[in-house]
Every structure is written in C-alpha cells, then in structure tokens.
Amino acid sequence: MKIAKQLLIAISLMLIVISCKNNTSAQEEAQIESLQKILPIGSNISILIDKSDYTLSVISSDTLVKTYNVVFGGNPVDDKEKEGDQRTPEGEFGVRDKYPHRKWSKFIWIDYPNANSWKKFKQRKAAGVIKEGETIGGEVGIHGVPEGMNHLIDNRQNWTLGCISMKNNDVNEIYPYITDQTKITIQK
After folding, report:
1. pLDDT digit string (tens) for 92-108?
2. Phi, psi of 36 (to 5 degrees)
C-alpha cells in the first residue's frame, strides 16, 4: 500500500513536469533559440532595454523576437545625470558606432549624449543638481563581459560605469543586426 502511494505520487509529479514542458510559451522558446534561426540577418530591428526588468528585447515589425538578460552601472535605477554617476541614460537613442572590443567581445556605442540628453543636463545644471565643472559624460554602449564572467549577468551584478552589459554570446548574437538605423529605447 505504501509503495503504491509513493508510485502514484511519483507518476503525478512526472505528469506535472511533462505538462509544464509542453506548455512552454513561444517567448520562452525564442529565449533558447538562436536569433539567427528566428530572424534573417539584415532585418530591421529596434532594441528595448528595460532597466526595471534587467532585459534587452529585440523587436522586429512591432513583434518581440527575443529577450536577453542585462545589467547596468552601480546605480541601475536612476537616469544618467553626469559623467561618473554610474547611471544608464534613459530615452531614445541611435547607434554611433559598433566594433569588436578586446575586453568585452563587442561594443555597440549609443549616441549618448544626444540632443535630449543635453537638454536634461542643462535643466539639471540650471536647477543646481549639476555642479559647475561637472560634465555630461559619454561613451555609453551595449557590450559583453570580461571572459569567463557570465555570472555577472546571471547574478544581476551591476558592474559597469553606466553601460548595458550582456553575456558575450548574447552581444555577439545581436551584433550583426545592429546598424546606424537601429533605434534603442532605454526605459525605467
């Protein structure tokens, strides 16, 4: 009787596990599948970076294609105000350049500061939030991690000075899709 009860529990648990595996959402499957298998290189994409969810999403024709985990600077919540504040800027950005990087695999340089960044900086300076002599900063981008440091992303360790960091395999995967026409939105 005791063995039959244990067997019934084991079978029930197996059925639950099988049921959960069969109910994998399309988004979860896209997480696993390579971007190149989902979307042809040369496709127009946009990037949505959500600071509260620690995600970077690839969007094509208003459709979510794939989402990646990312981390930020030491202050991952607030909008960038000035150089050295370890904050990631929020807003709409383009791509200034992209290139291989010796420490972080690839670097996708966003066009921070742009006109809107300068407007916010000047408003904060006029309000006394930014002190005389402080600068707006620059060279913010999307990049990988030092070799063997994927745990920084897995553990949500915000280690950059304000950039967006993702696993090297992930930045390598999105890199061929990035052009000077790619729109990047960074939101809280």
Report:
1. 999 999 999 999 899 99
2. -65, -25
